[in-house]
């Protein structure tokens, strides 16, 4: 891939790289308040490794306790799928170690993105309290105090529209993960040689003026028609789960999770911003764009 990169990144890039490199040099040496750690880097690495070790041990325990007649989670489902395949075709698809890696990949792929999406949603809900009220009215009028279920997505169109508008407006995953062209390719007249690292700019698509009326405005109503029905064609134009064969493996799970999380919280609580604090919607830039820390 290396030979296909263009190295003329310009002054901004050089400055950016210098700042990042300085931060990486000074951060590891920074001292912690507690004497348990020799420096900040040691603290972070040990904490992260402990968390990872706990997760791997947990998955390992599930494998040991697996009961094929009692599927309780994704690890169980994966083991069962492998055992079934073995029983039918005598092919081992994944061994225990590979099952552990697959589960931790799935958790890794989903965990941070969902929490980022929830952080953004809460920030927008306190920034636009009138939208929050509309969602609460919709929940109260349709599900009451019954705890929200995935199937309620069909009866809460405004809430669904809000979640879609969060995906579009924040575009917190601005690019797909990098892919590499396997052959010389021409796309819209642009030649892309084989072995070029490519990203798709999803943020741009989600803010394209020829598709979206006033793209910078947060307006869940854009997805609803006069009968308050969702415009599925427009929703399909939101670009946040990637495309093609490497599209997100769990779009439906993600949509269900975010929906139940938001509706469960808003059914019971009114979220408010701290009176003196000014909210800032600009993201911190990165592969996943996160909101700046805020209080509610
Ligand atoms: C709002 C939440 C989520 C968003 C916006 C999202 C978005 C994405 C994107 C953009 C990709 C890369 C597609 C590409 O490179 O072309 C991806 C890949 C993937 N996602 Fe998600 N994702 C979300 C939640 C989840 C969850 C909850 C899971 C699992 C439980 C998950 C599992 C995966 C996996 C396994 C891949 C890799 C697929 C492959 O390489 O073939 N995602 N996701």
UniProtKB/TrEMBL annotation:
The keyword Endoplasmic reticulum applies. Its cofactor is heme. It is found in: Endoplasmic reticulum membrane; Microsome membrane. One of its GO terms (cellular component) is endoplasmic reticulum membrane. Keywords: Endoplasmic reticulum, Heme, Iron, Metal-binding, Microsome, Monooxygenase, Oxidoreductase. Heme binds at residue 248. Its main location: endoplasmic reticulum. It comes from the Eukaryota. One of its GO terms (molecular function) is heme binding. The keyword Metal-binding applies. GO terms for biological process: hormone biosynthetic process; progesterone metabolic process. Belongs to the cytochrome P450 family. This is Cytochrome P450 1A1. It comes from Bos mutus. The lineage of its organism: Eukaryota, Metazoa, Chordata, Craniata, Vertebrata.
């Amino acid at each position: 891939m290396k030979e296909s990169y263009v190295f003329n990144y310009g002054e901004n890039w050089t400055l950016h790289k210098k700042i990042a490199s300085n931060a990486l040099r000074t951060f590891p040496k920074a001292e912690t308040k507690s004497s348990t750690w020799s420096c900040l880097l040691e603290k972070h690495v040990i904490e992260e490794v402990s968390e990872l070790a706990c997760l791997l041990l947990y998955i390992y325990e599930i494998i040991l306790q697996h009961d094929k007649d009692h599927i309780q989670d994704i690890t169980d489902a994966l083991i069962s799928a492998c055992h079934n395949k073995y029983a039918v075709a005598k092919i081992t698809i994944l061994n225990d170690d590979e099952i552990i890696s697959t589960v931790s990949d799935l958790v890794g792929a989903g965990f941070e993105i969902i929490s980022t999406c929830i952080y953004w949603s809460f920030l927008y809900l306190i920034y636009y309290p009138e939208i929050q009220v509309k969602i609460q009215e919709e929940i109260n009028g349709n599900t009451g105090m019954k705890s929200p279920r995935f199937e309620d997505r069909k009866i809460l169109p405004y809430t669904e529209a809000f979640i879609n508008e969060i995906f579009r407006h924040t575009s917190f995953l601005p690019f797909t993960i990098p892919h590499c062209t396997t052959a010389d390719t021409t796309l819209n007249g642009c030649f892309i040689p084989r072995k070029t690292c490519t990203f798709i700019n999803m943020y741009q698509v989600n803010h394209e003026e020829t598709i979206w009326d006033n793209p910078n405005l947060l307006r869940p109503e854009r997805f609803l028609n006069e009968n308050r029905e969702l415009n599925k064609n427009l929703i399909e134009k939101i670009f946040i789960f990637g495309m093609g064969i490497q599209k997100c493996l769990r779009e439906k799970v993600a949509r269900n999770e975010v929906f139940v999380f938001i509706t469960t919280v808003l059914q019971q609580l009114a979220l408010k911003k701290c009176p003196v604090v000014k909210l800032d919607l600009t993201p911190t830039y990165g592969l996943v764009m996160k909101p700046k820390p805020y209080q509610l």
